[in-house]
Amino acid sequence: MSSYFDRIERQLAGAVETGPERTRPRLRTAIGSLAAAVITIAVVVIAATLGHPSGQRNPTGSNPTGIVLTPASGPGPGTRAALEADVVILRHRLHASFPEVKVTRVGDTVLLTDVPRRRTPEVLRLTIPGHLHVLDWEGNVLLPGGHTVASRLQRQDPRALAISQGGGSAAPGSTGAGGTPLYDAVKLAAAQHALAPGAANRRSGAAYFLFEKNCHPTRQRSCLLAGPSPTRRALLAEAPPGAWVAGARLYAVPAGFLVVQAAASARTDSTSFADPTRQYFVVRDAPALTDGQITNPEPSTDQAGNPDVTFGFSAGGERAFQRVTAEIAHRGALVSGFGQTLNQHLAVALDDRILTVPSIDFKTYPDGIAGGGGADITGVFTRQRAQDLATVLRFAPLAVPLTPNP
Amino acid sequence: MAGDFPHQSDGELLAATRHGDGAAFARFYRRHLAAVVRFLLRETRDRDVTADLAAEVFAAALVSARRFRPRGDGSAWPWLQGIAHNKLRESRRRGRVEDRARRRLAFEPETLDDADLAHVDELASGHGLVALVDALPDGQRQAVRARIVEERDYAEIASELRCSEMVIRQRVSRGLSRLKQQLKEQER
Q: Which pTM value belongs to this model?
């Protein structure tokens, strides 16, 4: 048998076995979970002891707790070096608001200790990967057929218009503006052919999702069993026991495409990516600008007194911002030739969530917006969230994304 | 292509697959690979396309293993041939080999080199018989090899395999019948 057919055989056998690992040896899983739980508890106890050698209460006066963060892709070669980098980044991020929190690496995990129990969600918000990407919205967001919205605007496609211009009171990029449930977005993304990865891409490989069989998502249920995960193995490790045998559906979103959650309003703060009340969009992973091209992010307030985040651009960032806003403005002028104004948009996303989709007024900025004056992200923040975003953007994104252990 | 598997029908292998037995599906794959490759190469006359389609056919078979219902002699070949036929028709219609089943199983992309392409020919030609012999149940495979390929006496084989000559004769007979049946199926 040739090596090609051998490899196919191994992939087939692997596809059968990776899932049922959770059901075939339930005992093993149970033992594994128990062992993991014991290790986790032991690690937290050790870390808590290290944090309080004298057994005194935390000086904040609150009852402190510990958080165990593990690599989203599971342990692998180079993980520990990446975790060391994450430890440094997290220390920087947490230092201003939570100076009492200690960050250490223990094996293949990162431990946060002395976390004020009541402020755990705020601490967790600072442990996100922290990849900012800015992209041409209409040029990259996909319609259910796989075409970009930009390619269908001149035909007055109603779905393209809804995503581009929003619907009713829903602003572009938010729930109610042409998005779909997570399941439909993942199916659409998984049906695309992988694009050659570019240097600025958020992901170089696939993202994996596991859904219930015969999924009919509602506003109460997203049907997501596990994911998004950077590897198939990590996804299946996260899946509930028996999911594979119960006919769970695995989808691989290829490189070059992202499933992003619609923008939240200022007052809603979804902690879960799979929020059944939210809608999702599929975008091409083609950022015009990334976090590496912005400088000096600061929390601030806009002219109306609403919290925002201001930042400048690096030299390359300025050019990229001018270029992409010019392209967007030119398209706005082109598609607005039907007696209506169809301003086009930028999308600003943090990891897999849209923050805001501001419009570029092609009449005011026919040649784009010069990046020399910097830019700001407005309209979707409480003061605390603006502070958190500025803090996350001030330092590099995590070298390896981390997931809190329940 | 060795392996110590107990004799199992296609239905049993696919049932074991549904319960997470990867080795069972590997055996199913080995049992039918030559037939699938032969069928596809005859239809496409293209070795790259044949190799690509063969992988997609088995991935699709794995995805729909729960739908298999044994009929007639219990062989899965008619079912597998149906899948191959559908994949072939789909690829002709679209002008490319689809990889939907492989993507669903999150397969890594595979590439083909010259040796792989040469092996497509081998599998599809008479050498495919070797794969069919290898895929026989253990007892039958040992008996057929010893008697037909190595031309040894029944008494000697019986002594080596620690069973009676009658058992060896039965195994050889059943093994040859099975080979004959599979070759007929491939030619259909």
A: 0.59
